[in-house]
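Go through this fold for my students:
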Amino acid sequence: MLFEVDDTVFTKEVAYDYASIDSIPVIEASDLSYGSFFNDFMLLNLPCIIKGITRNWQCLKCWITENNALNFEYFEEHYGMDMVQVYNCQERFYNTQKSYSCCFRDYLNNLKDKPNVLINTSYEYVKNWHLQLNHPEERFYEVPIYFASDWLNEYYVNCLDDDYRFVYMGPNGTWTPFHVDVFSSYSWSANIFGKKRWIIFPPGSEEILRNSFGDLPYDVEAKESVSFRSSQASTKSKKCIEVIQNPGEAIFIPSGWYHQVHNVTYAISVNHNWVNGCNISMMYDSLLRALSEVKEEIKDCKGVDDFEEHCQLMLNAHFGMNLEVFYKFLMYIATKRMEMLQGLCPKTLFHGNEIGSNHILFDLESLKNVLEKFITCNEIKVLDFFSTVTPRPHDLFDEVSLILEIHSIFTDLGSK
């Protein structure tokens, strides 16, 4: 399926306005085009819930029985040997939960020992399960067209044999603590089975939750967090938004929106973290903030040899990416889009959907903008990697700028 934007997107002035938001729209997939989602939600960094997303997914037939029960026999037969990370939602470990790794079959057997797995008090939650990566031959779901512009998984799947595509599975009472998504990415989460309750804060409104040390809470529903929030909130814009996500619905969480998620019933969901031309600058800004945090943490070592290189090692551990990895990511997407624009490679992406010509141009414009900021970063002048990589950041910026300029000239000539 083709996903495309219209040519007015290049002249749009984008201003993020969260002050008046007090609810999240719920829209039928049949009433929502890709262009509308792009303009009204992605570009404006606003959340929504889309109904009817999973209607034709294969997993609905395989994972759920005709009696609307979980098909544990199918799970064990097909995925029983997968290693999964299981989180105990009753045991805190810093700002996450204690976890252990086990064979998925063992997790299922533990559930079977419970008197009623759908009304459960085990509080054990399988998270970040790379099920699609582990079983590339299976197409148990389809990436909804709205979420097709996904640079992050395009790069990780094709280049690193890794991904940010996950399955989450756990009984009622399991939950994910208060957080913002990795890399300040977007996320989408589609419920295959069960219901979730989301507590969501527009960007900036999480600041009222910081304690005297500047730390954000582990649980926004803990007594101390609720009391503090009530004492600090003074305007409507400071309030959080709560929504219930039902089976078959996908929720879109934009960049920088802190959230906490609770399983109301036994729930299984497919989740992606993703980045594209709409939020790549937010990702870069987040990377620079993380670098500043690293430098502040080890500022006493600033005079030692290879200080900047050491900062990059720590940044990779702290943020999950450093400047080298980020540039390789930009370089891959930029190269692919330039090749697509010149007809040198297919426009079909890793999920089977095809990117439109205007969308390719939008991606290249976004890459040009972030590269323009990237080449002013002091670190690229001193880190060894950037003295040897080909093309260097300045050259890649020039190359993207030139191909956009040439395309614009030919477009103008063709319209005369």
In short: The radius of gyration is 22 Å. DSSP finds 13 helices and 15 strands in the chain. The mean pLDDT is 93. The longest strand covers residues 83-93.
